[in-house]
Amino acid sequence: MTQSAPSDPGSPLERVLDVALYGPIGLAVAVREGLPRWAEVGRRQLNTRLTMARVVGRLAVDQGSRHGGDIARRLADQADALLGALGLVGEPPDQGADPGPVDTAVVDDVEPSAPDDSHAPPPASAPPAAPAAAQDPAHLAIPGYDTLSASQVVQRLPGLSADELEAVRIYEAAGRARKTILLRAAQLRSGS
């Protein structure tokens, strides 16, 4: 049995030298030579992902801001219309557009303060037959009626006579049936 020389790659001494000395030295050389290239690959990957995350984040924030602003404007318009219908606010600034549907859960809970409900507007599903004059907005006492928002119409109702209020109520019930206008017209006709 001959003992292996240190140059024999299969000898235990050679394996120990590979693991303890040559391997770490080779790894250090490879890291030193490859580190700039590995760092550049890592930098490109990270920059690409960060850029994509920034773009997606900006889009999400912009979309959320727009959506939140739309919701806030609709809620403010509904609140103005409701307060105007109740006679609690003055003339709102002219916005020239209908603020959209009023939250019926809020409006339906409000009842005219008059004990007599005989002047309450009929349900929207069964509008009364209107005279031909009341079906044409040109015959209403409010000029440009169809171009006005609900809050703008409500602000003009207190200056109308009982007959003019009834014509507005009939026209509105047969058309857009905006609850704020119908409610305020009923309140004014009953003297509330």
How would you portray this structure in words?
Helix content is 57%, strand content 0%. The protein is built from five helices and no strands. Helix 4 packs antiparallel against helix 5. The longest helix is centred in the first third of the chain and has 74 residues.
Structure, briefly:
The protein is 57% helix and 0% strand.
Summarize the biggest pleated sheet. none
Overall, the morphology is rod-shaped
As a percent range, the share of helical residues equals 55-70%
Q: What is the strand tally?
A: 0
Task: Throw out a few tags for this protein.
192 residues; mainly alpha; 0% strand
Outline the secondary-structure elements.
Elements: H1 12-85, H2 104-107, H3 150-156, H4 162-174, H5 179-190
